[in-house]
Amino acid sequence: MKTFRLSRIALVAFAAFLWPVLGAEAAGSRIKDIASLQSGRDNQLIGYGLIVGLQGTGDSLRSSPFTDQSMRAMLQNLGISTQGGQSNAKNVAAVMVTANLPPFSSPGSRIDATVSSLGDATSLRGGTLVMTSLTGADGQIYAVAQGSVIVSGFNAQGQAASVQEGITTSGRVPNGAIIERELPSKFKDSVNLVLQLRNPDFTTAIRIADTVNAYAKATYGGPIAESRDSQEVVVQKPRTADLARLMADIENLQVETDSPAKVVINERTGTIVIGADVRVSKVAVSYGTLTVQVTETPQVIQPEPFSRGQTAIQDQTDIMAAKTGDKIAIVEGPDLRTLVAGLNNIGVKPDGIIAILQGIKSAGALQAELVLQ
């Protein structure tokens, strides 16, 4: 017997039927939690290297000729001649090495590096990354990586079966990259601070500028902050101020954030997130789920006695369709708690909430942005 549930959405995987109320009132947040310093961003580094010491899980040199070329070049740089010989080693793998250079990092400090296989290696477990230069977008070398590779995944296989968990062709080298060059710009060389909001919003940007100006009037005697747009707030450095101390004071100021009303729906995972400012005009909602049940009961047919017939199987299929959930309810949501209670009063399971919200939006009654992922 096979049962199919025909619905517009996938099963909503919620831990509980009732959603928790997502903060009825907004609370103040520190500026450091809602904005970042423009000059304090990461810089991406990239390099090409070799991993050695693998237990027969490296690249096939015939299928990955660049691995053979890289290995020969490395040996020649070490003073070892490779002329006239062929290698069938399976303990070497070519990888791309990536890392993020933190802001204000200094030479000698260490950062993590990530390695990812380029060839047909099956596993990087147990390997060691050979010295690899990491360059930035300007082509300059900013770090050098080397060390043992940590791989979280594993695989095991036999003659007729295999099992794998996670990814075995990528891994990390913890603290494996040493910074050799610092960024050309200095923090204290700046004449101002540019704060970038992680969630752009004009209201929040204005509140940040007002909060900083209120602090500056009490400390320096005048305003120093200005909101450029919904994402950037520029803070001018007072002549008598230390830039690092000024940033430390500003990033701990409390600001009440604001955000547009949104409903985020992920139909693949069945996740629904409703913002605190979502409102729903009064609408009537009816939701029904169509269930189709298909039952297969094949019958065996025997031939007549003393006949030359053969035993056969005759198919027999019974199909039953049923529709449930025929209630009609009035839904109105002046606040989040009332909205959630109204949706639950319809009497359907959570797998119908996504379809209901999409229908309410189509009817123009959902006063929020509907984001589908």
TrEMBL record:
Domain of life: Bacteria
Keywords: Bacterial flagellum, Cell projection, Cilium, Flagellum, Periplasm, Signal
GO molecular function: structural molecule activity
Cellular compartments annotated: Bacterial flagellum basal body
Primary residence: other
GO biological process, one term: bacterial-type flagellum-dependent cell motility
Keyword Cytoplasm recorded: no
InterPro entries in the record: Flag_FlgI
GO cellular component terms, semicolon-separated: bacterial-type flagellum basal body, distal rod, P ring; outer membrane-bounded periplasmic space
Cleaved signal peptide residues: 1-26
Subunit structure of this chain's protein: The basal body constitutes a major portion of the flagellar organelle and consists of four rings (L,P,S, and M) mounted on a central rod.
Protein family membership: Belongs to the FlgI family.
Function text: Assembles around the rod to form the L-ring and probably protects the motor/basal body from shearing forces during rotation.
Protein name: Flagellar P-ring protein
Source organism phylogeny: Bacteria, Pseudomonadati, Pseudomonadota, Alphaproteobacteria, Hyphomicrobiales
Gene responsible for this protein: flgI
